[in-house]
Amino acid sequence: GIVDGIFTRMGAADNIYKGRSTFMEELTDTAEIIRRASPQSLVILDELGRGTSTHDGIAIAYATLEYFIRDVKSLTLFVTHYPPVCELEKCYPEQVGNYHMGFLVNEDESKQDSGKGLNVLPTYGRHTV
């Protein structure tokens, strides 16, 4: 196949059944991805480090992404709002590219009311509150 595995870490939720905080869940999932990913893998990490302080989050995100760049060498989509992490493009210009996503809001559609005081936004055939 094209890739030998697809690994994702998205969302932010604790695991009360296992007694794990959001931060612990992030680290546990990320550690498992680090153990299993190969150069032929697709890795998607969304906002890694958000479950802790900004300073610690930046350090975790930066170190994790740099590990994937230098050691794992997988195709990695790393979503972040931490500007220092984006600086890795300067250190690894052949391996890293920064991209930004934007969107336009149709004011008429965004003001649809669900009847319960919540705004309902139609997205890809699903209504998201």
Automatic annotation (TrEMBL):
<dbReference type="InterPro" id="IPR000432">
    <property type="entry name" value="DNA_mismatch_repair_MutS_C"/>
</dbReference>
<dbReference type="InterPro" id="IPR027417">
    <property type="entry name" value="P-loop_NTPase"/>
</dbReference>
<dbReference type="GO" id="GO:0005524">
    <property type="term" value="F:ATP binding"/>
</dbReference>
<feature type="region of interest" description="Disordered">
    <location>
        <begin position="109"/>
        <end position="129"/>
    </location>
</feature>
<keyword id="KW-0067">ATP-binding</keyword>
<keyword id="KW-0227">DNA damage</keyword>
<dbReference type="GO" id="GO:0030983">
    <property type="term" value="F:mismatched DNA binding"/>
</dbReference>
<dbReference type="GO" id="GO:0006298">
    <property type="term" value="P:mismatch repair"/>
</dbReference>
<dbReference type="Pfam" id="PF00488">
    <property type="entry name" value="MutS_V"/>
</dbReference>
<protein>
    <submittedName>
        <fullName>MutS homolog 3</fullName>
    </submittedName>
</protein>
<keyword id="KW-0547">Nucleotide-binding</keyword>
<keyword id="KW-0234">DNA repair</keyword>
<feature type="domain" description="DNA mismatch repair proteins mutS family">
    <location>
        <begin position="41"/>
        <end position="57"/>
    </location>
</feature>
<dbReference type="GO" id="GO:0140664">
    <property type="term" value="F:ATP-dependent DNA damage sensor activity"/>
</dbReference>
<dbReference type="InterPro" id="IPR045076">
    <property type="entry name" value="MutS"/>
</dbReference>
<keyword id="KW-0238">DNA-binding</keyword>
